[in-house]
User: Fold this.
Amino acid sequence: MKFGNLVLAGLVTGSIYAVFAVCVAVWYRVCNILNLAVGDFAMVGALGVDNLYRVKGLPLPVAIATTLIVVGAFAYAYDQVVLRIAQDGPRRSEGIVVTFFFTFALSFFIDGVAKMLFGTDVHAAPALWNGQSLTFASLHLERAGLLVLLCAIVIGGAFWVYIRYTLGGKALEASGENSIGARIVGIDTRRYRRLIFVATALIAAVFGIVESPITGYTYLSGATISLTGFLAAAYGGFRKPGRALLAGLFIGVLEALLGGYVSAEYGDTVLYAILAAMVLAWPRGLGFESAVSG
Amino acid sequence: MSGVALKVSNLSVAYGNVVAVHDATFTVAEGDACAITGPNGNGKSSILMGVTGMVRRHGRVEIFGAPAKNGDVRWAARHGLTLVPERRQLYPDLSAADNIILGCYAWTRSMGKARKSASFGKAIDLFPELKPHLKQAAGTLSGGQQQMVAIARGLASDPKILAVDEPCLGLAEALAKRVYDVLASIHEQGTTLIVVEEAPKRALTLCNRRVEVRNGVAGAA
Assistant:
């Protein structure tokens, strides 16, 4: 049952990649910009709840609610002040490149503030579902891992339903496809950019709270999370959240199997070699060409 | 049908220091089919862009008597003025059906209401040749089919005034005739039409009046 347990562990890790890939891909779908700060909101979620609960002594629900309100308000303010100037100002044609660097700068800014507020040690939000690991036949799964999987399914499913079956979801896609065409039918493209930026920040924060008991976070964890999300989103061609989700799960399972069967030490090296080979062999199928050409 | 659908007074549109339209004044009566004609680069499209709010303007625009908000396309669409733009401005990766139903966004946020609406049904029925291609990505359709999708999207917004910019640009003569037949049918059903055309001869087969634009200055012809 080693194989089954590795696949289960890979699905848990993969669902982390998958959710952040979806967050990256959906915002890219709206405004054609990569958000390199999305992982930092996860770090703020995890360390913020830990700080308010463990250090400040607030009840857990209050600590979670306060952290989410702060993350949501900060994301909203960042859109209103910085992204609005970068994207909606008089030099909008340069806005996409500029905004990409603004999200990069935002990542550094959040990391710096987190270092001052939370220190440099590894911390985690308290586990939301305590108890022994769950066992089915000879398969074992941590409760926090199951929670992560369930969160990924709910978040992925919600985005899928929203984009596929609602007019708002179609408007979101139209905003990224052709902003002039979107304005013609009365779509407020700025509203969708803001909505998804705030929503993905909140989703990242929730995921950080749920997932941090498994891995533990430092103030630098956000950049790593963003990178894995970025990588999985790239394999989904950036513009396709559904494919980004599957790519995240695939990478997680492949990583776990390579670690279990090939080498725990060199598993990641082999993994990235396989991923690079896939890009070289099948760029069009993986959506890399369309991502680059727009 | 004698009310004024659109009243444009002293409209000017500029892109930076370049003035594209200078002091244009004209009215379009309800039920009219009005052609805006003139050579390329003389400001015809800019008039539509300014009137619909796609670009900021100086001057006054009234849609059925209500003063239009400057730069607010949504306001214009909700008050009955819809633009079918030059070069169509479709969403290439979305299906033709999704492109058309997004026209309904001007008046609803509900996919259910949009699908069941008379305006969406009418937009689909007007182009039977599109039916086999409704699930196809709009970017993979032919130029003529894309123009039909753009007009259908405009109709789905349930317009009282449909402003169509260069509807036959880049189309073969047979397709151009089909597009004009459809526009004539839309006009016969009571929609006020504004058609921007370089060639007055073609426009006047459909339109009962004309505004001529020369060097950014508009006048009745």
The helical segments of chain B are 44-52, 73-78, 96-101, 111-116, 118-125, 143-156, 173-188, 200-203. Residues 106 and 157 of chain B are 6 Å apart (CA to CA).
